Amino acid sequence: MVHPTPLRQRASFRVRLGFVPLLDSAPLIMARELGLFDAEGLEVELSREGSWASMRDKIAFGLLDGGQMLAPMPLNMSLAADGPHTPIISAMVLSRNGNGITLSRDLYQQLVSPGINPDDPMATACRLIRIARERGEPVQLASVAPWSSHDLQLRDWLATAGPEAMEHVRILPVSPIQMEDAFRSGTIEGCCVGEPWNSLLEYQKLGRIIHAGHQIWQDAPEKVLGMRGDWADQHTTVHRRLIRALIAACRWLDDPDNHGLLRDILSQPDYLGEQVMYLDNHPFSLFHPDLHQNFFRNSANFPWISQAHWLTTRMLHWHQLAVHVSDGDLRKIIRPDLFREAAASMGIDTPLIDSKTEGHHARPFTLNGRFGPVNVSSDALIGSRLHDWLAACRT
Amino acid sequence: MESRESLRILLIDNNPERAGHVCQALRKEGHEVIRQRPDASGLTAAVARDQPDMVIIDMESPDRDTLENMSTLNEHAPRPIVFCADQPGDRQTIQAAVRAGVSAYVMDGLQPERVRSIIDSAVAQFESFQALRDELAQTRGALEDRKVIERAKGLIMRHESCDEEAAYSLLRRTAMDHSERLAVMARRVIDLLDKSAADNARNSKPFQQAG
Known about the structure:
CATH class of the largest domain in chain A: Alpha Beta
Strand content of chain A: 15-25%
Radius of gyration of chain B: 27 Å
CATH class of the largest domain in chain B: Alpha Beta
Number of helices of chain A: 17
Helix content of chain A: 25-40%
Order of helices and strands of chain A: EHHEHEHEEHHEHEHEHEEHHHHHHHEEH
Distance between the termini of chain B: 67 Å
Strand order of the largest sheet of chain A: 2-1-3-10-4
Oligomer: heterodimer
CATH topology of the largest domain in chain B: D-Maltodextrin-Binding Protein, domain 2
Number of domains of chain A: 2
Shape of chain B: elongated
Largest sheet of chain A: 5 strands, mixed
Structural class of chain A: alpha/beta
Number of helices of chain B: 7
CATH superfamily of the largest domain in chain A: Periplasmic binding protein-like II
């Protein structure tokens, strides 16, 4: 699908956004390909980034205005004590779920022994630690980037096996592109990574998905839109139009009938390229049914203050953040008010509140919106995280 | 650290030609350069084994997230240079590096001016390499453009039964009407005329309606 260059030159506003080639960069890619940015009078330049670090640096030094970010990234970039301190404004969630924890076939076989329910992440975590203890050698796992939901989910899963669990695992940093080789060479025995990498590891018969990210944190924000704070302050109208275009793209992605076209577009070399083409023979084609990747339904795009707050508590717990974050500081970064305004201008209703108790809802539920009840994603958390969160809120 | 002492630099760049230039420049300044081919998890091992004072890495390399992760997990791992951007002088150096596509990781305790001079050398090499590549691309593009225009001209001549000069002026006029580059319009003409010729030569529309 190659779209011709529009014949008429139109006055439009130029925005530079970065994306990392993953399945959940689809909202940005489709907003461009479907002409949704054009419809909002935006000329968006998409820059494909090889690493999250490269995205962070380009935004910090003004080469990009913003982009697709890992959910903890706006918090990390705005609050990091030692980083290039760059205030970020995040007013929209681009996707929820989509991560998987994949183990080598060997380790998977050992783990799923009689008496272990493979659907119970707390049981599998205990079993994994027992395997490591029995063989007297830590299990080697990989996560993709610090300040990522993958890293935090992997640690939260393992930690359910008890306070000493982390002594029996080693978590190595491996980028998604190199995950396949790391499995092949036996450097790692498992990883937590986004799609399409879990599907590819399964397809190459190198690993099997033991858990989906949503079994650790249900319907948690995965990728978000993050714009440089000074840019967002100066360009409120453009920012709103950007959010509108991305909401429209997310709504389009929600319809499975569109996934054939999506697949054709993502497989272009400028976007995901051959990673997606590998999946030609994969039984699920594009979205793995167990991973519940979600772009729109149940107010998926709403940026909850409470979810950001809870992310900061996880980052604190795993030493990725040095200090507690006040509600006031968080509200400078996460902006449900901006999202509400953009959504309302499209006739999309949003919850009236910005915070809820995280960890209470195992199923989607309804909250009051401006015009009536609004469906909201579930938010169950592994183990007893709810209490951690409540305790953290009181401090 | 004695300022004359040579530094051990790990260089990661999957463009071998550019890496060669950077390597040469840094060695000339008396540094020890270890070149690392990017591969799965070999980087973690290489950093542990070679204990570089500094890592120079292509900004776009996926290995960067590995380095970032190492520096959060291990206090003896090199830290991203962008974390040192609090001094105005450093900020300028780092900004130039980000623009040129160079990123660097440094061990704590290195003298800032030594770090700056190494980054400056790498940035200079990256920039001159990019300039060379741009020039090459431009030359190639110009050659390619000329070929496309010739081909479009030929198709128009056949389609409109006109001579070369008339075909060229038709092409140029259409490009101007659509405020397009000549080569872009030529490509569109080729798409259109080639396709219509293949579909059905008799029903193909006159060129004036094209676009």
